[in-house]
Amino acid sequence: MQVMDERVGIDDQGQVSPRLRTIGIIGGTGALGRGLAFRLAAAGHQVRIGSRDPGRAKEAATLVDQRVTGASNVEVCASDLVVLAVPWPAHEQTVAGLREELEGRIVIDCVNPLGFDERGPFALAVDSGSAAEQAQQLLPGSAVVGAFHHISAELLLGGGELDADVLVLGDDRDAVEQVIALADSMTGLRGVFAGRLRNAGQVEALTANLIAVNRRYRGQSGIRVTGI
After folding, report:
1. pLDDT tens, 141-199?
2. Residue 48 host element (H or E)
3. How far is CA 116 from CA 166, 190, 215, in A?
4. Rounded Cα distance, 119 and 220, in Å
5. What's the rounded Cα separation, in Å, for the pair 63 and 113?
């Protein structure tokens, strides 16, 4: 007898497909949050954009997709998976303030600690090693997974074709597999395990290189892992 994983189901064509989830996006009113909301909703997931101001979240949701709703950051924590898409300067305070609400949740951190000056983008040093590791230290009762660092917000929002791998990092095997399945559910993306959370620093930092590539060649570059 075949036992189906709870994260998958059978689609209309009788094919195995990832189970649809409720996704909450903290800081979802920003470009990356709105872009992920749009693509996740297109994949069939129930998406809620969060903000400190629920009214602002609801307004942003109406601009993204009619299937997306808006609520407070606290409210969207009650989702199957929660995405952190806040600006780096607000990361520590936002995460620390939601520790109780995120207890027992899988938290996807896609924040990139970057700086910008006249010479271009550069990676910032993080005392914890990375944004994802900082989140895990602040959320000891949650399973933090790093993912979606290298997908262009402009491309996500623009509705163009995606063709990239999503590097997924984490220490909780089940949580990592759920995030890989989430990435796989989005057309044009493939989730790839990229190591433990301690390796998140260089993955986050690589975003600065991709931004430099995009500025030089006026493109929307992504990451592809070959040979697998």
Report:
1. 999 999 999 999 999 999 889 999 999 999 999 999 999 999 999 999 999 999 999 99
2. strand 46-51
3. 24, 29, 13
4. 20
5. 27
The residues near 227 (Cβ < 8 Å, ≥ 6 apart) are none
Q: Are the beta carbons of 176 and 145 closer than 8 angstroms?
A: yes
Strand 164-170 vs strand 189-193: parallel, antiparallel, or unpaired? parallel
Instruction: Name residue 225's beta-bridge partners.
Output: none
Helix (H, G, I), strand (E, B) or coil at 173: helix
Helix intervals (H) in the chain: 31-42, 54-64, 73-76, 91-97, 131-138, 153-158, 173-184, 200-217
CB of 108 closer than 8 Å to CB of 148: yes
Question: Rounded to 5 degrees, what angle do the CA atoms 218, 221, 227 make?
Answer: 150
Whether the predicted pLDDT of 12 surpasses 80: no
Helix (H, G, I), strand (E, B) or coil at 174: helix
For residue 121, the cross-strand partners are 116
Reference 64, options 162, 156, 151, 185; nearest CA is 156
The dotted CATH code for 20-217 is: 3.40.50.720
Say which residue the tokens 């399973």 belong to. Answer: 143
- Taking the C-alpha atoms of residue 130 and residue 167, their distance in angstroms, rounded to an integer, is 15
CA 114 from centroid of its chain's CA atoms: 17
pTM value is 0.91
Tell me the pairing of strands 114-117 and 120-123: antiparallel
Q: Does the pLDDT at position 11 exceed 50? A: no
